[in-house]
Amino acid sequence: MNKLLGLGLSVGLTVFCFAVPHCTAAPVDVRDHKTYNLHHKENERPQLFHDQPTTYSEWLKHAEKVGPNGLFDPLNPYDRLPPLGVNPDFECGWRKAAWEYAQKLQPNQPNLHSVFEALQLQTCNETLDGFVPAAKNALSTFSLPIHASDDNTFYVDPQAGSDSNSGSISSPFQTIERAVIACRGLLPSLQPGTVLLRKGTHRLTSTLHLGRDDSGLTIQNYNGEAVTVTGAIDLGTLQWTQYDVTNGTTNIVVQDGMNAVYGMPNTNDPTQPAYIHSHTNNSTACLNQCKAQKNCTAFTWHDQNQGEWANACAFRTDGKYSPVQQSGHTSGFKNTTKRNIWVADVNADVQSITGLRVNGQRGTRARYPNANPELDKFPVGWISGKTAWFGHLHGTEPATNIHVENPNRSFEQDEFQNYVLGVGGTCDSFTPSEGYWCSSETSGGGAFTYRIPKGLQYTSELLPNSPKYKNATGAVIQAWRPGHWASWMFEVDGFFPSNSSFTWSKGGFQGARGSDQGDEWFIENVFEELDAENEYFYDEDNKKLYFYYNAS
Predict the structure, then answer these.
(1) Partners of 400 in the beta sheet?
(2) Which long-range contacts (CB under 8 A, 24 or more apart) does 346-354 make?
């Protein structure tokens, strides 16, 4: 407890006393227009910093002079003033430094100007006049670091090298790990070392750990050669055999109260991925038109109460189907029994395949709704229908809640006034089991003590293929937290088809803000969802890889 309280006081004090050895701190409240209650020597003007405002009116004067027109709005609690006592020159200085660093870090980022705007540098009299992002090939080549020489440089060639070689350009190592070890063995006068990578794919079989002793180490490609560094495992040449290759038939699965063209523009242009094909008196007529048109992959009919969309029969031609729950709409998608699924045995050492590339193209783990994770944007590929989430995986409250009363920031803002810390309870699964979001006194919009649901109930409307699921254990639920501040991943270890539910005991640590339920979601790593080109499923028990090939 003493350690925790000491940490709290230390963090709290830095708010007031960073680099100011003579200051002391005590509570202040500008909302009641009270003066600062400071500890000071008799006959000495109380102060936290030189020329520190001591009343609410002085605080407002301070706000007016901290920058051109004020860097921030002092009356808006979400538009923070610079901390009291911080020189405006420093405030602008660190923002300029961040902008310069961003330009060096990603010089060819086309949206780099947004960093400038986020840093509000216009309030520091900075402009973007004449700024142009670097060309896309600006990072294709590098010059050697000035400390590189034949005596402290080692070469790595993934094809022609060997870790028993000397590491010279004519006798290169094969792995990056071996070259790093060689650099660590250099005489102090020759450090830091340089590792130059020859063209090809360099595979890391384990995490490359770099520490303090590696400071200044340079790892880069040699003379602009094309280099790839990856942790992926090469599966080699697999022997593929047909698993389910059929022409099949096509039918349309219909869902009432769902809109599959939500957010689409009001257009009759058939070249668009979604457009209004016609107007019909009922959903059946719209369904039949979609069935008759080869390039229609899904439809949505709007009833007579949908204003300008009344009786509109809209088609999708892009193969996407991620309907939004909305009354007055009927949607459907073409479901084909055509299959082109192949299977291959995989080396027994491969425990799992969470990502796959085939001939350089990213494969998609079998999922519903179908989507391309690299090209499709939300809400495509997400289930938005009302879902019943239940339970709490780790409880809802901390075992111990620590609240540091003094010092505090009540004089400066309405939120985040006190240092708080939650220990144990809902955060028992973390190491250490403590943190701000573990506390029951979190602040700010959407701030809730960390907690997550432990399961959900689904329906055949939400998961049309779920009646076919034989075993969904091992499936992964990807879900937005309400408000979209973060998304969660849950690994299903409980599958209960009798009451249509999934439960889990792992996951949900990707976002700090808690919630009793999730928002939009999708499911992946389910064999029965292997129904779209370029999808795959890996049977970990039997070491078999199934792939839906996208060609005949």
Answers:
(1) 423
(2) 346/235, 346/238, 346/538, 346/543, 346/544, 346/545, 347/235, 347/236, 347/543, 348/543, 350/233, 350/235, 350/538, 350/543, 351/540, 352/538, 352/540, 353/536, 353/538, 353/545
Which two three-digit tokens encode residue 354? 């969470």
What is the sign, positive or negative, of the torsion defined by CA atoms of 60, 62, 68, 71?
negative
Neighbouring residues of 107: CB distance < 8 A, sequence distance ≥ 6: 133, 134, 138, 139
Phi, then psi, of 393 in degrees rounded to 5:
-70, -35
| 115 exposure class (CB count in 10 Å sphere: 0-12, 13-18, 19+) | middle
Digit-by-digit pLDDT tens for the chain (552 residues) are: 332 222 222 222 222 222 222 232 333 332 232 222 223 333 333 333 334 444 545 555 655 554 433 444 545 444 445 555 567 678 788 889 999 998 888 777 777 888 888 888 887 888 887 777 766 554 445 566 666 788 999 999 999 999 999 999 999 999 999 999 999 999 999 999 999 999 999 999 899 999 998 999 999 999 889 999 999 999 989 999 999 998 878 889 899 999 999 988 889 999 999 999 999 999 999 999 999 998 999 999 999 999 999 999 999 998 888 888 899 999 999 987 788 999 999 987 899 999 999 988 899 999 999 999 988 888 889 999 899 999 999 989 999 999 999 888 776 667 788 899 999 999 998 999 999 999 999 987 778 899 999 999 999 999 999 999 999 999 999 999 998 989 999 999 999 999 999 999 999 988 888 999 999 999 999 999 999 999 999 999 999 999 999 865
| Cα–Cα distance for residue pair 424/422, rounded to 1 Å | 7
In this prediction the pTM is: 0.68
Tokens of 116: 């400038």
- The structure tokens listed for 170 are 């004519």
Residue 301: CB atoms within 10 Å: 28
| Contact between 260 and 299 (Cβ < 8 Å) | yes
**Cα separation, 110 vs 378, whole angstroms:** 22
Rounded to whole angstroms, the Cα distance separating 71 from 368 reads 47
Residue tagged 């409980």 (tokens): 494
* Structure token pair of residue 549: 């090939």
Q: Are the C-beta atoms of 98 and 124 separated by less than 8 Å? A: no
Name the residue among 68, 39, 197 with its Cα closest to residue 127.
Answer: 68
- At residue 235, what is the residue type? L
Strands 364-365, 535-539: pairing is parallel
